[in-house]
Q: What sequence folds into this?
């Protein structure tokens, strides 16, 4: 167990180090000289240029820059923004940091039970019209990109029947459509997996045992069958969370939400690379942490893993 | 003796294929009735029919299962559920896969008591501990908290027996409970079942293909072939003087208890598949004593045997 | 079961065939120059001269829709070609040679898997600048490890097969073993995987273009058309709705076709 945990943590540290190297490397190769961009009209001002270079640490040798970048990242300091002169990246990130991860986590927490419910509904009615219809909706849900779905939903609920706001952030109503758009793809993905796994588990001998014991049907399904589908389902949570993180980029762009995703996109166009790289590092960290959590969850859900490793 | 269960004209079909062709038998109070046959003879289908647990693909098309005065086939699904695990319990062939891997052994036994008798979790676990002790599980306190994968095959079957006996059922259906176990463990489980039977006076319907097992545990036996009962009688009389050629062959194949015999005679040919049962007597293509009538006219079960030749002699 | 009796495969095949036809014939079918700006026709509603209406610059949406199909499929095919070449090559080498090469390739794949897809794409877009090249490079970067892992496992299982063993011990040159024995036997499962991947690649391309990191103006793509249209949904919904419909259709088509192909080649998995 300890060896396993150690290996996983080491793996995450390795991935994050690679991410730091990649982002630092990328910063060296991005087009354009950031200081010249920052200077704008004052590009002739040699003194100001030298001062800025010193402030951003760009006058030092590369290795020294890397060490200080790495050290900064470890302390949560991602350097200074190029777009907002002399502003630390972490201040630029502050607003978004309170939005995007929360959005993704809330969507995850809601989509898991919804998806499991849908999949169970379909599996229990296998072969009926209700099952076929549910399956059709699930395939549709997986195939329609969320921003395409967004145009249908926004058109429907914000234009035709104006119930919900189409942009902005701060009120609960403004969170409804973004959350729906994040939840739908995750929910249908989980729904399809749940149906598949549940149909498999229902064939198991121990389900027959549970029925032979005279347990009520809901206990057979939920306590005995569904509990076992959670084991393989838990392994897909990492993939789903990855999808949700990508999803925040899309919904934040659609609804003008000041999250990390829309910030990263704006920063790519504004060539504010330190901000882009900070978002890349943060998202990689979230993703790694969720995957670590999934591994631990897997051990909790499956007693065979819990004790043998 | 009083019949606990009366099975009459039980017919089961998988789609258009009939796999049980009008089965009749009684299980008396306190007796062990063995159903013997090759795989595919319909003996496991018979066992699952007693619980109405055949699954979606199979259907009981006719017949009656009178159990303690009512027909199980007439009960609603919810009434039947209250019979399962409480009045009729079942244990299965594969103790490995018959226990849920994510719950402790103790919980899976306690569940029966919570469901049927409204025990609290604590009281149910306490009773489960007693049951573990009764079925000879060492260190029962700790085994309550063990997961199935931490137990040996024999221990798991003991857990299954504890689970089945938790509600002191009137009838225990045992579907090849020893087949998947080592020989020495087999003997222990059989001894345990005999002990449990005499302690509670439970009737047992014991499904097996092993004549040695039959000899050691059963009072009476039914021999099944191709979805029909071909011979029935007390274990003593059938072992002494089997009348159906199929029973004779089965007994010749099996080493009897206590002696290791060379497998001299093996039944030639294969058991027919349910969608292609031969006309006449279903055993006639494999029967060395078949006469002309055997292929022309299906024999009926007369005085405990379904055979034209045996009937005439 | 023949492929034609599989309902999913047929529906998927028809949808994919239809969109492919549109993409190939697009330039000839397009009633207007997709770049032609017409200030008279700004946000013209569907019908009349502009069947699907016009966009904010008065450009014909139908023409842009048709060329957009061509761009989407073109990008998807380029990505597919690159991932297949890189993935299969590295997978075969990794599986057949083993040792240090194998370890290196698989660790590299592990590391790529440890990043969320879009994050790598953004990193690439930042370095290369938003555009078609960034899309192709980033998607290829994300997709090759999956193909490489699949190929490697197929090669490993073949390597222990008798006929390959026989070829190795009889001294057949490695190149001939690979070409004659290994490649023909791994082609089918890889093809299925690739066909399942096309829908997702198209979706990923559209996502990047939607975010503005992908194909740039004036070249049209469905993803960018949806982004341009979403802001005008209140007054002129046709742009976003037509582009969304096109994108959803092609992705559904490829997913159905891939599912159907998989069931056809692997009936065991059909119940899933």
A:
């Amino acid at each position: 167990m300890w060896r396993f945990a150690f290996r996983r943590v080491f793996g995450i540290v390795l991935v994050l180090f690679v991410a730091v190297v990649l982002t630092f490397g990328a910063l060296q190769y991005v087009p354009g000289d950031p200081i010249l961009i920052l200077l704008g009209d004052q590009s002739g001002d040699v003194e100001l240029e030298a001062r800025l270079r010193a402030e951003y640490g760009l006058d030092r040798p590369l290795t020294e820059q890397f060490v200080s970048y790495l050290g900064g990242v470890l302390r949560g300091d991602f350097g200074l923004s190029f777009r907002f002169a002399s502003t630390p990246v972490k201040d630029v990130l502050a607003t978004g940091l309170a939005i995007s991860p929360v959005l993704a986590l809330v969507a995850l927490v809601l989509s898991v039970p919804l998806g499991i419910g849908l999949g169970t509904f379909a599996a229990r009615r296998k072969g009926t019209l209700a099952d076929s219809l549910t399956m059709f909706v699930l395939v549709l849900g997986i195939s329609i990109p969320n921003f395409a779905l967004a145009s249908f939903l926004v058109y429907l609920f914000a234009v035709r029947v104006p119930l919900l706001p189409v942009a902005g952030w701060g009120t609960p109503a403004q969170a409804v459509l973004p959350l729906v758009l994040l939840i739908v793809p995750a929910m249908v993905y989980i729904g399809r997996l749940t149906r598949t796994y549940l149909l498999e588990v229902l064939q198991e001998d121990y389900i027959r045992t549970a029925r032979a014991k005279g347990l009520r049907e809901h206990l057979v399904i939920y306590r005995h069958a569904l509990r076992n589908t959670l084991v393989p389902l838990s392994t897909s949570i990492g993939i789903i969370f990855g999808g949700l993180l990508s999803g925040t980029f899309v919904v934040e762009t659609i609804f003008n939400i000041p999250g990390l995703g829309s910030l990263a996109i704006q920063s790519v166009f504004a060539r504010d690379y330190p901000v882009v790289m900070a978002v890349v590092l943060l998202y990689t960290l979230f993703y790694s942490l969720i995957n670590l959590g999934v591994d631990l969850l897997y051990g909790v859900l499956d007693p065979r893993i819990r004790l043998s490793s | 003796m009083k019949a606990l269960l009366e099975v009459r004209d039980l017919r089961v079909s998988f789609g258009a294929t009939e796999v049980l062709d009008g089965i009749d038998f009684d299980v008396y109070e306190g007796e062990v009735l063995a159903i013997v046959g090759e795989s595919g003879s319909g003996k496991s289908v018979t066992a699952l029919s007693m619980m109405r647990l055949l699954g979606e693909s199979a259907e009981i098309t006719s017949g009656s299962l009178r159990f303690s005065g009512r027909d199980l086939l007439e009960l609603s699904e919810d009434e039947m559920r209250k019979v399962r695990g409480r009045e009729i319990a079942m244990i299965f062939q594969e103790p490995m896969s018959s226990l849920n891997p994510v719950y402790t052994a103790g919980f899976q036994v306690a569940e029966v008591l919570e469901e049927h008798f409204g025990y609290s979790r604590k009281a149910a676990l306490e009773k489960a501990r007693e049951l573990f002790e009764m079925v000879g599980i060492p260190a029962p306190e700790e085994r309550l908290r063990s997961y199935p994968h931490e137990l040996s095959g024999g221990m798991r079957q003991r857990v299954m027996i504890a689970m089945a006996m938790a509600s002191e059922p009137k009838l225990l259906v045992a579907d090849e409970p020893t087949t998947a176990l080592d020989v020495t463990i087999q003997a222990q489980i059989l001894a345990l079942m005999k002990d449990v039977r005499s302690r509670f006076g439970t009737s047992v319907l014991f499904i097996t293909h092993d004549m040695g097992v039959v000899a050691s545990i059963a009072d009476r036996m039914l021999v099944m072939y191709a979805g029909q009962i071909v011979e029935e009688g007390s274990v003593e009389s059938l072992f002494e003087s089997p009348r159906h050629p199929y029973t004779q062959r089965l007994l010749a194949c099996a080493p009897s208890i206590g002696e290791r015999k060379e497998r001299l005679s093996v039944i030639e040919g294969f058991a027919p598949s349910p969608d292609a049962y031969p006309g006449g007597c279903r055993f006639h293509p494999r029967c060395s004593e078949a006469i002309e009538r055997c292929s022309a006219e299906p024999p009926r079960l007369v005085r405990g045997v379904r055979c034209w030749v045996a009937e005439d002699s | 079961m023949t492929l034609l009796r599989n309902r999913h495969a047929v529906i998927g095949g028809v949808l994919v065939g239809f969109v492919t036809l549109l993409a190939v014939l697009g330039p000839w079918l397009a009633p207007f120059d997709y770049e032609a700006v017409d200030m008279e026709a700004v946000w013209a509603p569907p019908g009349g001269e502009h069947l699907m209406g016009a966009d904010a610059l008065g450009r014909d949406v139908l023409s842009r829709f048709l060329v957009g199909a061509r761009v989407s499929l073109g990008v998807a095919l380029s990505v597919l070609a690159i991932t297949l070449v890189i993935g299969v090559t590295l997978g075969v080498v990794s599986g057949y040679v083993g040792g240090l090469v194998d370890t290196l390739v698989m660790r590299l794949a592990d590391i790529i898997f440890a990043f969320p897809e879009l994050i790598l794409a953004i990193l690439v877009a930042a370095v290369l600048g938003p555009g078609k090249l960034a899309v192709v490079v980033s998607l290829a970067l994300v997709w090759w490890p999956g193909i490489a892992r699949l190929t490697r496992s197929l090669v490993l299982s073949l390597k222990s097969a008798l006929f390959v063993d026989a070829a190795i011990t009889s001294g057949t040159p490695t190149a001939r073993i690979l070409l004659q024995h290994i490649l023909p036997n791994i082609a089918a499962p890889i093809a299925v995987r690739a066909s399942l991947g096309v829908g997702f690649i198209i979706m990923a391309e559209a996502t990047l273009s939607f975010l503005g990191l992908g194909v740039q103006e004036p070249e049209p793509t469905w993803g960018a058309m949806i982004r341009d249209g979403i802001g005008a949904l209140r007054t002129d919904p046709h742009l976003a709705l037509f582009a969304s419909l096109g994108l959803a259709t092609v992705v559904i088509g490829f997913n159905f076709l891939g599912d159907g192909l998989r069931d056809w080649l692997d009936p065991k998995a059909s119940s899933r």
